[in-house]
Write a structure and sequence with these properties.
Layout lengths: L1 H16 L3 E2 L27 E8 L8 E3 L12 E2 L5 H15 L11 E16 L5 E15 L4 E14 L6 H29 L5 H6 L11 H10 L4 H8 L6 H14 L5 H7 L5 H14 L2 H12 L4 H10 L2
Parallel strand pairs: 1-4, 2-5, 3-5
Antiparallel strand pairs: 5-6, 6-7
Helix pairs in contact: 2-3, 5-7, 6-7, 7-9, 9-10, 9-11, 10-11
């Protein structure tokens, strides 16, 4: 028995020590049944089109992109280099281009209604291990987007993107697991970037079909998470009271996280105080999502709450996020 336990500990220590260099990345590895959008989210006016150009790689390509949030013996996250020849800004632009079209914003060329460019200033993925369990990943991105309207002025917007999720690999190929998680972060960030651009610049309404689905959230015995996610991306502000009313009744952490992230993407200040009132009694995943919501919604009150709540949080991922959004 003692020998068997020693073998288990040795395997775990070997797994947590794995690193190396990621030589290639494939956006296709970032998709799953959870984040693959299968219907239009927006119904833009006739003639609308969006040309997504290139993004400049302004981040440190020799920096630590896959890094450890925890360095404890049994909680050590994944640390690996990403080959500097891999252009994460180009991959992000590719993801934005694909997701915008999928979400209902037609692709355009030089004569498009809007043209999009910009810079990726920072991007990384932190992680920590649950002993004998999942690897928890926490992504951060800082991007400036330049939007030019045909015949009009250009506008620059700077966004921070955050996400967290769990990965499972039974202790093997942690570098590959982290690489796939980085692709998931890029895909889901691209979707949120499209949503925030639509909220602040394009103002395309949600599709009637999606507005109708909003009604399935209230009172549903099982939360329709896919609908909640799409509603959050849609910009449907009438969904905010529906989501806030559904939040307290949900016992599942995953359900509550989905609702809070949807509120983050909708970006309405009305969600700030209800989320703040729940913060101290929530699970750490919900607290992380709440800090994300404070940042996406913005404003002095939201950022003050992020600083107050997040800096005192017992969870290191929440403290780390709060330090980035409200130092």
């Amino acid at each position: 028995m003692k020998g068997a336990l020693s073998s288990v500990f040795a395997a775990l220590l070997a797994a947590t020590a794995l690193g190396g260099t990621v030589k290639e990345l494939d956006l296709a590895k970032g998709y799953s049944s959870y984040n693959t959008i299968s219907e239009a989210v927006y119904a833009p006016p006739a003639g609308f089109s969006l040309a997504v150009g290139s993004l400049e790689a302004a981040y440190d390509r020799n920096g630590e992109i896959l890094r450890r949030l925890s360095k404890g013996m049994f909680t050590r996250g994944v640390k690996a280099d990403v080959d500097p020849s891999i252009d994460l800004a180009a991959l992000l632009a590719q993801a934005i281009r694909a997701e915008a079209a999928t979400m209902g914003l037609p692709a355009g060329d030089d004569g498009a209604t809007f043209r999009l460019g910009g810079q990726l200033h920072d991007v990384f993925l932190e992680s920590k291990q649950i002993p004998y369990g999942a690897t928890l990943f926490y992504g951060f991105m800082d991007v400036t987007l330049r939007v030019e309207r045909r015949g009009g002025a250009s506008r620059e917007l700077r966004f921070r993107l955050h996400n967290n999720f769990a990965g499972w690999n039974l202790g093997f190929s942690r570098k590959d697991e982290a690489a796939d998680a980085l692709m998931r972060f890029l895909v889901e960030s691209a979707q949120e970037i499209v949503a925030r651009l639509n909220r602040e610049v394009f103002h395309a309404p949600p599709t009637p079909a999606l507005v109708a689905k909003r009604q399935t959230i209230a009172g549903a015995a099982e939360l329709p998470r896919e609908v909640v996610r799409l509603v959050g991306l849609s910009g449907d502000q009438e969904a905010v009271p529906v989501l806030l009313a559904a939040l307290p009744a949900r016992k599942s952490v995953l359900d509550r996280v989905e609702i809070i992230v949807a509120l983050a993407n909708l970006g309405l200040p009305a969600a700030v105080e209800p989320l703040a009132a729940r913060y101290d009694k929530e699970d750490e995943d919900c607290r992380f999502a709440t800090l994300k919501a404070f940042d996406y919604i913005g404003g002095e009150r939201a950022l003050a709450l992020a600083r107050e709540k997040g800096s005192a949080d017992e969870d290191n991922a929440c403290r780390s996020l709060a330090g980035r959004i409200a130092p």
